[in-house]
Design brief:
With 263 residues, the protein is mainly beta. The chain folds into 2 domains: 105 residues; 139 residues, Jelly Rolls (Sandwich), CATH 2.60.120. 2% of the residues lie in helices and 46% in strands.
Length: 263
């Protein structure tokens, strides 16, 4: 049995509400969130697979909790712009976490999805990071590329958030799995707000096992699959982004998916 606790905390650490149960827990919080509030998950064990949904407007995520605590600061103002306007609003909130079943753990799936990811997350995987995010704005953060949203035909606030590179030629995006997994396919959704956007005609994927692959891409906002020889990796990096000759200045990534299985 794994004891799971969900808490809502004030900025000073005051616990406003909490609930603990084994393997599957809920918290119904019946107050509006305030700036500085956080949601905290505590687990009696580390290294556990969970299904996770901390707001009605977020996707349920299959995640790996490497530690015994995860913390999410409630986004407000500019930080909220990459989330649905319905998220974290109102005065009634349902938060749910449960241990994943053996069948769910062993299934073939996208191992890159985590709508609960954020910059300071270091325990709830997958986690996305990058060496640049356009102007440091939430709507261009790396986390947007793993939130499950594949709307590609525009840019800006939700549902058009993306990973933006601020025209950096050396831009790199890294997906961290937090454990060893086996993957055999990467799927990219390039942002396709043409003619505002450019696109990458060639990209390189590098892996923690030391291997790499270079792939050509098309001018499209639809899913573009890159098939791989199965490999066991802890992370994958997207880099060496070769822009097309189109005159537009702004290539960007809407979604990054990585398909495979747990080891």
């Amino acid at each position: 049995m794994i004891h799971l606790t969900i808490e809502v905390q004030r900025e000073d650490g005051t616990i406003l509400a909490e609930h603990t149960d084994t393997n599957h827990t809920h918290l119904v919080y019946d107050q509006p969130y305030q700036p500085g509030d956080s949601i905290v998950l505590r687990s009696s064990r580390d290294g556990v697979y969970l299904y996770f949904k901390l707001d009605d407007a977020l996707n349920p995520d299959f995640v790996y909790l490497s530690g015994q605590e995860y913390r999410l600061s409630i986004p407000f103002n500019e930080k909220k712009t990459s989330y649905s306007p319905k998220s974290f609003t109102g005065q009634l909130h349902l938060l749910t976490v449960r241990v994943a079943s053996n069948e769910e753990i062993s299934s073939y799936k996208n191992l890159a999805a985590n709508s609960h990811d954020h910059h300071t997350n270091s325990t709830l995987y997958p986690h996305a990071s990058a060496n640049v995010e356009t102007r440091g704005e939430a709507v261009f953060a790396a986390r947007n590329a793993i939130n499950g949203n594949t709307v590609t035909y525009s840019h800006g606030e939700w549902p058009f958030e993306s990973w933006g590179i601020n025209q950096r030629l050396d831009a790199e995006f890294t997906l961290h799995f937090g454990r060893l997994v086996e993957i055999d396919k990467i799927v990219l959704y390039l942002r396709a707000d043409f003619p505002h956007d450019n696109y990458w005609k060639q990209v390189t994927l590098s892996f923690s096992d030391g291997s790499s692959i270079t792939s050509s891409l098309e001018k499209s906002g639809k899913a573009q699959a890159i098939l791989l020889e199965p490999r066991q990796v802890e992370w994958v990096k997207l880099s060496e982004l070769i822009q097309s000759n189109d005159p537009a200045l702004f290539p960007a990534l809407t979604q990054f998916e990585a398909y495979g299985r747990e080891i």
